[in-house]
Amino acid sequence: MENYIKDLEQDIHFSPIRTKNNEKCLTDMSSWQWFYISDIFQMEKGRDNAQIEDNGDNCLVSATQFNNGICGKCNSGNKLFDGNSITVSSNGEVGEAFYQEESFFATGDVNILDVIEKYKGKLNKYNAMFLTTMIKQEKFRYAYGRKWGINRMETSRIKLPAIVNSKGNYEPDWQYMESYIKSLPYGDLL
Prior knowledge:
Layout: H1 2-11, E1 32-36, E2 41-45, E3 58-61, E4 70-74, E5 85-89, E6 97-100, E7 104-106, E8 110-115, H2 125-136, H3 150-154, E9 157-164, E10 170-172, H4 174-183
Parallel strand pairs: 3-7
Antiparallel strand pairs: 1-9, 2-8, 3-4, 5-6, 5-8, 9-10
Helix pairs in contact: 2-4
């Protein structure tokens, strides 16, 4: 048996995942501000009871904490949501947030967050990873008996890095969020 295991170990060929990022990231949170989620995103509830299909082309996002919220693939549903959005579970695994890069269908247990017109073109996979982490920090407030529906989400706040715009108002610092994620170990592999 011992020789058998040694033979198996010799036959396994793998290369470890390597990253170029080795620096420690420090964040100065003194310039961070509280933002209502509704000041950054327009929200819409998923609306599908779509059936998972073996040969589906589009992801079906549901209220799960696994697999980026994707429970399977399907070809048809009530509404195909655009990619470059964030999904947040409002039922089941309440508060699980994920970035969806590609178009997708979503069940009624998911809230879809799409940036408001003012911030169109700012969201990308890097700052979305930052935002989903900050949204998940609020999940302790909600549970099965206290769901995080659209009405509650509109009045929820998250703390984010901020800059002062030309009118003297705070707005999210999209570039800082992106740079921070890119600087993390393995951030270069996203």
